[in-house]
Amino acid sequence: MSNALDIINGVKTISSGRQIINRLNLSIPHGEFMTILGGNGAGKSTLFNVISGQLFLTSGKVELNGEDVTNQSEENRAKYIARVFQDPKLGTAPRMTVSENLLLAQLRGKKRGLKKRQLAQQKEFFFEQCQKIGNGLENHLDTPTGNLSGGQRQALSLLMATIQKPDLLLLDEHTAALDPKTSRQLMDLTEKTISENNLTCLMITHRMEDALKYGNRLIVLDSGQVQKDMDETQKNQLELADLLMFFNL
Ligand SMILES: Nc1ncnc2c1ncn2[C@@H]1O[C@H](COP(=O)(O)OP(=O)(O)OP(=O)(O)O)[C@@H](O)[C@H]1O
């Protein structure tokens, strides 16, 4: 069986000649939940941009489910990939209501417009999905998302990203803008969503505790390369102090 993702000899060179992705090789089997650490400018977001098609490699290959998508557009790859960003404003359309955003997410990749009738049909399902989150989102189905708290918006973004069960879920520091308690709640929800749906997930984080606690693989990126790659056993033996040492903190 093919992997969910393969990057083979990936290189991204910018106009100055610097390689921001530098002969990077990475294979992600289906069902893996990998956390990604790395200092500022290590290439973490660039890696996600290369996977999602927002940036094209200068050389090398990107394969999703064994299919070569190196030259495929971001729109094409959106069939397979869902991404949640750090900024709560990026994941949702602010003037649209929670239900309308959820319906849009449900229709992603399908050529159908938003219809009032569909919205009415799906309301109960959306209510149940939001209720599972446990932050009161179900009482805001008709609220424009711009009026939600950051935590509610990020939980909604996660729900929108996973409502169609993507082949690959990319979490780009999705808890970074939240207070510690809300961040913990969103991480619990994230873990539950991933395990219940057996999703394949890559999660960038600056919180070392989260990189250790969640997932079954951990990589450290530096200068556009994978510097450390630890499987579940190696990861479980790691202590926070070991990680701090990698970063000379
Ligand atoms: N489109 C681009 N054009 C030119 N340089 C870029 C581009 N995208 C990223 N870079 C550069 O590539 C390097 C890696 O950036 P990237 O945003 O991937 O780092 P990061 O690991 O996500 O950092 P942070 O933790 O600060 O978000 C940086 O030096 C950045 O300035």
From TrEMBL:
Residue ranges of every copy of the ABC transporter domain listed in the record: 5-248
Q: What is a single Pfam family found in this protein's UniProt entry? A: ABC_tran
Q: Which InterPro entries does the UniProt record give?
A: AAA+_ATPase, ABC_transporter-like_ATP-bd, ABC_transporter-like_CS, ABC_transpr_LolD-like, P-loop_NTPase
Task: Give the molecular function GO annotations.
Answer: ATP binding
Keywords, alphabetical: ATP-binding, Nucleotide-binding
- Report the superkingdom from the record: Bacteria
Q: Which PROSITE patterns does the protein's record reference?
A: ABC_TRANSPORTER_1, ABC_TRANSPORTER_2
- Which protein is depicted? Spermidine/putrescine import ATP-binding protein PotA
Q: Which organism is it from?
A: Vagococcus luciliae
Q: Could you tell me the gene encoding this protein?
A: potA_2
